[in-house]
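sry for the spam today, last one i promise. struct tokens for design, 497 residues
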């Protein structure tokens, strides 16, 4: 919480540096102004904590299911489907989530995301066979897709400029908290006990988030200006100003004049460039092996036979992940997007190759591996630090910057489906490759793809630190004949003339 408050302070200082005439007055109200949005965003992002529990749940649970004395006998192939089904179904729900956000608002859409999580955990609590767990994971995945589609939209619409970066980062921080909770609690309780803990999170989200206002942007789009003003007053408190509502209304009205089409994502060259850039970054994010390591962490640490036990190693792993996500939020606007992604990709690539080499020597019964048992305990935390410092967090910032307002929701939807499919492929293929060819082949493959990501980022990714939205997007559309609608230093729309 303290780190997030510091991040808000940094964002405010940057805002004031660009607006020197109000610096003294606004710094005097800094503590009052920043505390309110951060508290609000914690309520909104509790749904991503629920998402984190569904991702981290497999790590302590699969060893229980695979044990010889398990009450639900599970094969290695079935365990890979248990890990993968949730991600597979999360590719289905972004499209209806995007539609619902426009029809009923992002707040109601996020509240709907809690329902699949609650149903999923009820099924886990009742499960006596593998197909029931399959069903639970598939249903939970629907909530995952809705949450990661609607949460960034809602946070972006309720945020004031000085805390928008902190809000976007908190999505990742709260998700990592959910994962860490599984590592800390899961190994020491039964499946029923863990599911009972997990079901409480979406229920708590519904209770607390119900008090949040709907996005003022939604009310403006539906013509309910009075409700928009009331929503904004609730969000801003005594620092509400009419000018902000007027600016929102102007931007929404301009966007409504030029409704985007799905095919514009591919017909407009700048949109294509944006998709290619983000597809490359998210491909690297997934195929560096992060999801496989998170889902199978306890099994990987158990196979490594390092100095710490598998359970304790997972807790260390999750703690590093959570703390690094907070650190990343402090660096993304200081060092830049591209340097963090390059360092991140290089780090995970090197870590994967080292871990793969360790498992190869172990499979060959090499005598030297007896003196190298510390390697997984040292290198896997380095992997997760490298991953979280850039690949886990920076892509969300780039996604919010690179598309015009009128196409952003559709682009986010397409990207979320792409990420879900890539995550499913990694989660499923890891277990298959590890069982048939060995762990080391999977890690070496992740390492080579990570190095490929370094080359992609170095060659194709433009640096966006310190640049306005308009400047970033104009670079993408610089070589084509496009009509721009620019409002408040942001490209509201871009279309072929």
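last one done:
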């Amino acid at each position: 919480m303290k780190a997030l408050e510091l991040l808000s302070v940094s964002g405010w200082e940057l805002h004031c540096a660009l607006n020197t005439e109000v610096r003294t007055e606004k710094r005097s109200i800094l503590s009052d102004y920043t505390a309110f949005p951060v508290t609000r965003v914690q309520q909104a992002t509790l749904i991503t904590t629920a998402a984190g529990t569904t991702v981290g749940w497999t790590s302590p649970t699969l060893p229980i299911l695979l044990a010889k004395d398990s009450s639900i006998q599970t094969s290695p192939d079935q365990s890979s489907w248990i890990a993968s089904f949730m991600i597979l179904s999360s590719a289905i729900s972004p499209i209806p989530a995007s539609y619902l956000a426009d029809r009923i608002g992002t707040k109601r859409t996020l509240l709907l995301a809690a329902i699949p999580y609650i149903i999923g955990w009820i099924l886990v609590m009742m499960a006596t066979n593998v197909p029931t767990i399959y069903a639970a994971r598939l249903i939970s995945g629907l909530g995952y897709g809705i949450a990661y589609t609607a949460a960034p939209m809602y946070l972006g619409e309720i945020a004031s400029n000085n805390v928008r970066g902190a809000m976007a980062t908190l999505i990742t921080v709260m998700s990592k908290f959910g994962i860490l909770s599984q590592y800390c609690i899961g190994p020491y309780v039964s499946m029923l006990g863990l599911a009972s803990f997990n079901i409480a999170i979406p229920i708590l989200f519904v209770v607390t988030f119900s008090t949040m206002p709907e996005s003022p942007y939604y009310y403006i789009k539906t013509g309910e200006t009075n409700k928009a003003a009331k929503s904004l007053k609730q969000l801003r408190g005594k620092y509400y100003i009419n000018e902000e509502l007027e600016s929102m209304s102007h931007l929404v009205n301009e966007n409504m004049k030029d409704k985007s089409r799905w095919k514009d994502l591919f017909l407009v060259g700048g949109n294509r460039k944006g998709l290619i850039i983000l597809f490359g970054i998210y491909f690297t994010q997934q195929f560096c092996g992060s999801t496989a390591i998170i889902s199978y962490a306890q099994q990987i640490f158990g196979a490594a036979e390092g100095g710490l036990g598998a359970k304790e190693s997972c807790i260390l792993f999750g703690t590093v992940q959570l703390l690094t996500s907070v650190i990343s939020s402090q660096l993304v606007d200081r060092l830049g997007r591209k340097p963090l992604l390059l360092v991140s990709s290089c780090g995970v690539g090197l870590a994967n190759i080292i871990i793969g080499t360790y498992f190869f020597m172990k499979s060959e019964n090499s005598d030297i591996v007896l003196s190298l048992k510390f390697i997984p305990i040292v290198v896997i935390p380095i992997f997760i630090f490298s991953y979280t410092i850039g690949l886990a967090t920076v892509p969300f910032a780039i996604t919010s910057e690179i598309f015009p307002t009128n196409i952003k929701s559709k682009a986010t939807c397409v990207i979320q489906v792409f990420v879900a499919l890539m995550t499913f492929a990694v989660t499923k293929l890891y277990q298959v490759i590890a069982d048939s060819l060995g762990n080391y082949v999977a890690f070496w493959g992740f390492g080579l793809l990570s190095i490929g990501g370094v080359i992609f980022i170095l060659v194709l990714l433009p640096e966006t630190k310190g640049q306005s939205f308009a400047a970033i997007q104009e670079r993408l559309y610089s070589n084509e004949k496009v009509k721009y609608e620019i409002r408040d230093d942001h490209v509201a729309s871009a279309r072929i003339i």
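The longest helix spans residues 405-436. ok im logging off now
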